[in-house]
Specification:
With about 400 residues, the protein is α/β, with parallel strands linked by helices. The chain has one domain: Anaerobic Ribonucleotide-triphosphate Reductase Large Chain, CATH 3.20.70.20. Helix content is about 40%, strand content about 15%. It is built from twelve helices and twelve strands. It is globular.
Length: about 400
């Protein structure tokens, strides 16, 4: 297992931007050294702020771009990998339109956009705006790569350390860990004689690592005064079969991910993660990013795994739709239809879900992808069976969608 990211959450003071980033950099350097001394590889250090709508002095494209460029320069000086400027918000509808221009001019800046509102609300204008962002971002870089730095969020609370979903609630700074733990799941389901034993092995392994990481984090908190927010032990993959969540699911007995039995396997693994005891933050569910997982990429290329399958599995586990390669001709209206389903699922089941969709310019369904990125496994463009919404669902209302009542 590796630490994917140490994420530092804070509320920026734009007047003291360089100083604040310097303080964050000093903290992250100290924290990285401590975790590496504990035997863990740290892949990246990251900052996440409150929503830019909360502190941007002027809600304009130019103001956000200049601030983002200042941030990016400060990141480079402090050797910090990435920064999330938080989500665009439904009660700031103009904020969504600011994002594509900043994605075009930066390389290490991430954004998100909320699809939902507190208390079970869904915003149709926000869903449409996020579809427009994804459509616009697809043309900014080769292969639509800029969409790696944007996600639509449904019912995602602050404090999740995985990007692009990370944002701060406000108040004092804090930090948390995003882990890359798919290899633990592969090992657990490869080295046991029964399903029960495999599940227990995974729980034991997760709690073992948490038992090492948590005291280190508590020590850093005591030393620095920066609060430890918890661990996200979502078994995030790396594009190798031995670090593939798809491999772990197939080791349970699914012939090919996407075939019947896959939903049950996903539910079993998610329920197993729930049994482990450790200080939690973020998702702590199954992450099924098509392009970041070697076996998922393979099954998608074969046609065994579809976008609808991924959405179905999100109902029992998961973080939603992640790094899904789609046809370059995908329209904002088609993308919005997918986002509405993600939002409805998140609110009805009262769970956090995200959508990071990646239309690939010039590619059609079935075409091979050609990403040159160490954290991606190439696949084929997945079919987008979607049409623009009409009537009420194409409107500009906000509406409530409460979780199902449990009483009979």
């Amino acid at each position: 297992m590796k630490i994917r990211a140490i994420t530092y959450f804070y509320s920026p003071d734009i007047g003291e931007l360089a100083s604040c980033v310097s303080q964050a950099g000093a903290f992250l350097h100290r924290a990285q050294s401590a975790f590496e001394a504990g035997g863990y590889q740290v892949q990246s250090t990251r900052l996440a702020t409150t929503s830019f709508t909360k502190w941007l002095p002027e809600e304009s494209e130019n103001a956000l771009l200049l601030t983002a460029l200042d941030f990016e320069a400060a990141l480079a000086e402090q050797n910090i990998g990435y920064l999330s400027l938080g989500p665009a918000l439904p009660d700031h509808p103009a904020s969504y339109r600011l994002i594509p221009a900043v994605l075009a001019e930066t390389h290490n800046i991430f954004f998100s956009g909320l699809l939902t509102t507190p208390g079970g609300g869904i915003s149709l204008p926000a869903i449409q705006a996020c579809g427009e962002i994804i459509r616009a971002a697809a043309g900014l870089e080769a292969n639509g790569f800029a969409n790696l730095r944007f996600a639509a969020l449904a019912n995602v609370p602050p404090g999740a350390p995985f990007f692009p979903a990370a944002y701060h609630a406000g108040g004092a700074p804090r930090f948390s860990l995003a882990c890359e733990a798919a290899d633990l799941a592969v090992e657990a389901f490869s080295q046991a004689d029964t399903l029960a034993a495999a599940r227990q092995n995974l729980v034991t392994s997760l709690e073992k690592h948490a038992g090492i990481l948590t005291p280190i984090a508590r020590g850093i908190q005591k030393e620095t005064g920066i609060e430890f927010g918890g661990l996200d032990l979502t078994p995030a993959p790396f594009p190798e079969l031995e670090h593939s969540l798809g491999t772990a699911l197939e080791r349970m007995g699914v012939p090919k991910l996407g075939q019947p039995g896959s939903l049950a396997a996903a539910a079993i693994l998610a329920a197993t993660l729930d049994q482990a005891r450790f200080p939690r933050c973020g998702f702590n569910g199954l992450m099924l990013p098509v392009l970041e997982d070697a076996l998922l990429a393979q099954r998608a290329a074969e046609g065994s795994l579809s976008l609808k399958d991924l959405l179905l599995y999100s109902s029992v586990c998961g973080t939603g739709l992640d790094t899904v390669p789609l046809p370059g001709s995908a329209t904002a209206q088609q993308l919005s239809a997918i986002l509405l389903d993600v939002a409805a699922l998140a609110q009805r089941l009262n769970k956090p879900l995200t959508a990071r969709l990646m239309p690939v310019p010039g590619k059609q369904a079935g075409d091979p992808t050609s990403f040159d990125f160490a954290y991606f496994a190439n696949s084929r463009v997945m079919d987008l069976d979607a049409a623009p919404l009409t009537d009420f669902l194409a409107g500009v209302e906000n509406f409530d969608l409460q979780p199902r009542r449990s009483e009979i």
